[in-house]
Amino acid sequence: MTNPVSSAPSFLALFIVFSLHQLSRGQFLQGPSYSKFVVNATEMPIEDYYDYIIVGGGTAGCPLAATLSENFRVLVLERGGLPYTSPDLMSQDGFLATLTETDAYDSPVQTFTSEDGVANARGRVLGGSSAVNAGFYSRADKDFYEKSGMKWDLHIVNQSYEWVERAVVFRPELQNWQSAVREGLLEAGVHPYRGFSLDHQMGTKIGGSTFDSTGRRHSAADLLAYAKAVNIRVAVHASVERILLDPTSSPSRSKQSAIGVVYRDRIGLYHYAMVWENGEVILSAGAIGTPQLLLLSGIGPRPYLSSWGIPVVHHLPYVGQFLYDNPRNGISIVSPISLEHSLIQVVGITNLGAYIEAASNIVPFQSPARSVFIRAPTLPFYLTVATLMEKIIGPLSIGSLQLASTDIRVNPLVRFNYFADPVDLERCVSGMRKVGDVLRSRPMEEFKFREWFGNREFRFVGPALPGNRSSDAQMADFCRRTVSTIWHYHGGCAMGKVVDGDHRVLGIDSLRVVDGSIFSISPGTNPQATLMMLGRYFGIKMTKDRMR
Fold first, then answer.
1. Buried b / exposed e along 213-230 (16+ C-beta atoms within 10 A)
2. Residues contacting residue 404 through CB under 8 Å, at least 6 positions apart
3. Fewer CB in 10 Å around end: N or C, the chain?
4. Which pLDDT score is estimated for 378?
């Protein structure tokens, strides 16, 4: 088991890595086209019927709903609110404010600290984590398709990616820090140079972004614009509390069947969403929300559910198990030259089991407490901070999820067991050594300060890399001490253990899972492209299967 890491330094690192000044508040944009079929859950009927009920209007749920609505009546139940009502959330410059200005039940981001002591976050808004992340877009690596446990039709995979990309993906324009990182990666041997590419390819490349040229965010919620409006209803501030199973099931039947869900609106009223014959309930609540809802619905390990006093509906021992999170490690420096705000745009895909990424930020400097000896500045003063970070592939270290409460709004207890598998630690060491190689490259010279006697040195914010980077022990210690998250957790409803190859929950009819909780590995440098593709892909597959 890894040593716990204090959550306070982790949040400090978050400020250092992604600090962005706030936008002036006020109205940002008028509602998008999909707003005409989005309603507050308080306006929903107490009971209604649909072909498909999708729990979670997130990265996979929105494209899935849009696709199914082409032929069927669909309900999306999203626990959060609307993205376009938040200026910070809709802007690249508001990234930090969105992640840090949070509350227990209503903010677009729900923060939590894992049992490892690492600060983390979940999206709680229409669009899910695609509406609050750093915007990097890159398709899955080829190994993902081979190891995912699914049988993929790669022609439909590519069509699904293209469907997503037409709506929400843009080519970023590199400025000084991202350009220097690109050149530094190439000098450090991360070859070849791929230019701008949405594909996962070894070498250095510019990836796609879900921020457009004005800095406005796009997300999976935008994919609802593809929906057939007369066939879809999206209810926000709808907290699904339980999956409903057929009460007429008996021991003579081999399986129970999902018939609907019960959800609560913002003022505490309960609503029942039911499916018609041949309809289905689809869980797209993510790697934390989906296993949590299964457990609270009585689907999970019998002894564990009984210990919580939850009636056991179906014994399924691996719900909440095989949970993973890709650790992030990195360094931050103060820059002597002005830097732009940039989230992840350039990536180095190495053959070391690690990906190298970068961000740059303008950090408002807070003066000391007011003093009669210090004249308050008439203009704000800003520091510029640049970050290099690495994410390992996989990972191999296995975590788990347990309930913290029977209240669906309370985040479960999660433990990711970062670096429990020694291969993960070796990959981190290799990745951070490559970060060191980039720091030694010529393009990085302009980010050093001139010191006494003409020397030029970096000024680090937070831990610097060990002086002896050839020491495995020192580098491993650095990885353990500085571990944080890149918010790419996945698993908890592993394929073959909780769901079958068609995403059906084992032992339960009319109940599927379509989200990252089924993944046992992270798909490439960032999962959001693959999750949006998955929603579209599986919507096509379900439609074809049903209409045969």
1. eeeebbbbbbbbebbbee
2. 410, 411, 412, 413
3. C
4. 53
Q: Provide the annotated active-site residues.
A: 488
- CA distances in angstroms from 69 to 8, 115, 181, 282, listed in the order given: 44, 40, 43, 14
Percent of the chain having pLDDT more than 70?
Answer: 90
Phi, psi of 38 (to 5 degrees): -105, 130
pLDDT tens for each residue of 158-198: 999 999 999 999 999 999 999 999 999 999 999 999 999 99
Closest CA to 400 of 286, 318, 312: 318
80-94, 236-250, 301-315: the lowest-pLDDT one: 236-250
- Asked if residue 56 lies in contact with residue 513, where contact means CB atoms within 8 angstroms, the answer is no
How far apart CA 540 and CA 548 sit, in angstroms, is: 12
* CA–CA dist 326, 486 (Å, integer): 7
Please give the C-alpha separations between residue 8 and each of 30, 113, 118, 226, 233, in angstroms, as whole numbers. 37, 10, 9, 42, 41
Residue 127 in contact with residue 109, Cβ under 8 Å? no
Instruction: Please give the mean pLDDT across all residues of the chain.
Output: 91
CB atoms within 10 A of CB 15: 17
Contact indicator for 226, 167 with CB cutoff of 8 Å: yes
Within 377-471, residue ranges assigned H as helices are 422-439
Residues contacting 239, CB < 8 A, separation 6+: 79, 263, 264, 265, 408, 409
User: Between vectors from CA 411 to CA 354 and to CA 257, what angle results, nearest 5°?
Assistant: 100
Angle made by CA atoms 125, 506, 302, in degrees to the nearest 5: 90
pLDDT tens per residue, range 437-486: 999 999 999 999 998 877 899 999 999 999 999 999 999 999 999 999 99
Rounded CA-CA distance 243/258 in Å is 7
φ, ψ of residue 178 in degrees (nearest 5): -65, -40
Question: In this structure, are residues 15 and 100 in contact, taking their beta carbons and an 8 Å threshold?
Answer: yes
The residue whose two tokens read 């080519």 is: 171
Phi (first) and psi of residue 540, to 5 degrees = -65, -45
Stretch (H or E) spanning 473: helix 472-481
CA distance 186 to 176: 16
pTM, to two decimals:
0.91
